[in-house]
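FYI - complex with uridine-diphosphate-N-acetylglucosamine, inputs then prediction.
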Amino acid sequence: MKKKKIFVVAGARPNFMKIAPIVRALDASRAFETSIVHTGQHYDHNMSGSFFAELGIRRPDYNLEVGSGSHAFQTAAVMMKFEEICLKGQPDYVMVVGDVNSTIAAGLVAKKLSATLIHVEAGLRSGDRLMPEEINRLATDAITDIFFTTEKGATGNLVSAGCSPGQVHFVGNVMIDNLFYQLGRLEEAAVSDEVAALKERLCGRYICLTMHRPSNVDNPEVLETILASVGELAREVPVLFPCHPRTRKNITRFGLDGYLSEAGINGGAVEQGFLCMPPLGYNDFLYLWKDAALVITDSGGLQEETTALEIPCLTIRENTERPVTVEVGSNLIVGSDSDRLKAESRKALSGRWKPCAVPELWDGRSGERIKMVLEGSCGI
Ligand code: UD1
């Protein structure tokens, strides 16, 4: 049988964790010839290259190198460059993951060239159309042929929107496949000296913070409110803050550097402080957050990963497209209410948290399930 050509597209940091287990599974299939397409939406070493190296993803077969720009510019740039390689490579299937600009851009190109479009992490909805990712999710799912979902609610959303149940496959969460795989290798993986030394200097409890959503970091008042609230907590317990480039630039632009202290390799025990550092590689960050007393974040992926390890997580957003992390998991939505953020943080720090469990099929085998469904779709 002639192998089917499949292009697996990734562009931004949260995409790389998702494609790693899928590409491993597809590479082991005799049904597919798999190519990795990196759009280049993220391009800094610590936002992109380091993930390929650490997650065990082979080098991309194509790199479109689109870089940063406005939404229209970035989406259009991916479309133009992706169309060129699709015209040359003639993929039978195009797989997109998540909800970033690269997801919808590649999806549109694929459909207009009549490839079968596969969306992994389909059907999630925050209900908030001010979020660029929500528009990407709605638009991608409107043209997808084969949907893979991470939670049953997402399947329900798709079926309610008119998708045929036969097109939608609940397979669990590839982000968690990657998490378990990386945890299993963390002992021998290279955690940087700087991060290992920092963790040794922490005296027990600490918080990890990440934030990069435009709704939190592009507005000076909102950003300052969050920094001030977390800054108060940081006087009681260290807060480790690997800072996304967008956030870092805005902190300086809005004159808010005074809230932070930089985390260095030297020095004694760290008993408190708001320790800001550049974005970390996957393993360095995992090594820190897996033992945190609390994670505070606006990331979608981290809401899921903390749920999988049952670590208390406070989400600084008004909603989540991943409700299972709240209903079943360790996640709580606190929005931008600073009193609530501080009160819930103190609860977590004192070991009082809601009962939680790991959602159905978040078991490390989702990539394998995706492979089996796709093999079935081409008659294997
Ligand atoms: C994008 C995704 C978001 C995802 C996030 C993870 C969209 C609409 N948003 O947001 O869903 O959660 O990635 O990080 O696709 N920059 C660098 N180096 C890089 C990449 C970006 O310095 O390698 C800076 C640039 O100033 C750029 C800004 O970060 O303009 C924003 O990057 P962009 O890819 O547009 O969006 P993110 O905020 O990263």
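The chain is about 45% helix and 15% strand. Residues 51 and 315 are 24 Å apart (CA to CA).
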